[in-house]
């Protein structure tokens, strides 16, 4: 995989995981025309082999795949420390709210419903790659920088978050969202502000914020930081430190 700190968002390596040949060809053509290097897999097993041997810069992943579904494979990717920060966009015909929520909860950085417009697909790929590039660069510029918020400690360089020394398993987007609150406890952030800071306002709605906040609260449940994130009625969210 290309070092994220030097990714050219128009020449990244894209892994397309799609079992329907016609759709796979269409996506491949759109990505190649935009200057991306493309590799394809028909199922999650084949895709895992590619990730293990030559990790891509970003994955375009179908929800429904033979043998192992795309969303189940995504959960496995994000449970593995080696691949949990790998950018993934789900590209699928499943467009119900429950499907979107499950995909985002599994760790997807974006969720695109078929049919799609090639120009929109490329724009959303670029947006995700830019965010990851920024996260990598800011992490390198702040080596050994730790942010402490009550019992929560976050290291920007290593993308590590711990509560009382116990690590949390977070996706890159969850980490960045939690970091916003940890850096500015007591400050209230609207959903619109969080979309701008974490998602760069790229083709996602405010429900995306709520989904990720719910996931963060589940991660903190049972720890001394379980009440760290608070909803401020009518305004948004904040981190509140009680000690």
From TrEMBL:
PROSITE patterns: OMPR_PHOB, RESPONSE_REGULATORY. Residues 144-241 form the OmpR/PhoB-type domain. The modification 4-aspartylphosphate is found at residue 62. Signal peptide: none annotated. InterPro entries: CheY-like_superfamily, OmpR/PhoB-type_DNA-bd, Sig_transdc_resp-reg_C-effctor, Sig_transdc_resp-reg_receiver, WalR-like, WH-like_DNA-bd_sf. Keywords: DNA-binding, Phosphoprotein, Two-component regulatory system. Residues 144-241 bind DNA. CDD domains: REC_OmpR_PhoB, trans_reg_C. Residues 13-129 form the Response regulatory domain. It comes from the Bacteria. Pfam families: Response_reg, Trans_reg_C. SUPFAM superfamilies: C-terminal effector domain of the bipartite response regulators (SSF46894), CheY-like (SSF52172). Transmembrane segments: none annotated. PANTHER family: PHOSPHATE REGULON TRANSCRIPTIONAL REGULATORY PROTEIN PHOB, REGULATOR OF RPOS. This is Response regulator.
């Amino acid at each position: 995989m290309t070092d994220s700190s030097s990714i050219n968002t128009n020449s990244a390596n894209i892994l397309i995981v799609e079992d329907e040949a016609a759709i796979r060809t269409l996506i491949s053509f759109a990505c190649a025309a935009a200057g991306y290097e493309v590799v394809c897999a028909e199922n999650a097993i084949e895709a895992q082999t590619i990730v293990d041997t030559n990790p891509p810069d970003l994955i375009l992943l179908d929800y429904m795949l033979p043998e192992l579904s795309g969303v189940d494979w995504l959960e496995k990717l994000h449970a593995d420390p080696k691949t949990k920060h790998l950018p993934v966009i789900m590209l699928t015909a499943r467009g119900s709210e429950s499907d979107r929520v499950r995909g985002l909860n599994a760790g997807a950085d974006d969720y695109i419903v078929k049919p799609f417009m090639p120009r929109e697909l490329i724009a959303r790929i670029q947006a995700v790659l830019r965010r990851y590039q920024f996260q990598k660069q800011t992490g390198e510029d702040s080596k050994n920088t730790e942010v402490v918020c009550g019992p929560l400690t976050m290291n920007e360089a290593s993308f590590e978050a711990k509560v009382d020394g116990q690590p949390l398993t977070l996706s890159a987007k969850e980490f960045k969202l939690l970091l916003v609150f940890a850096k500015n406890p007591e400050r209230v952030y609207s959903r619109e502000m969080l979309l701008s800071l974490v998602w760069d306002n790229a083709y996602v709605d405010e429900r995306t914020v709520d989904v990720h906040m719910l996931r963060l609260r589940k991660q903190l449940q049972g720890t001394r930081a379980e009440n760290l994130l608070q909803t401020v009625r009518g305004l948004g969210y904040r981190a509140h430190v009680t000690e």
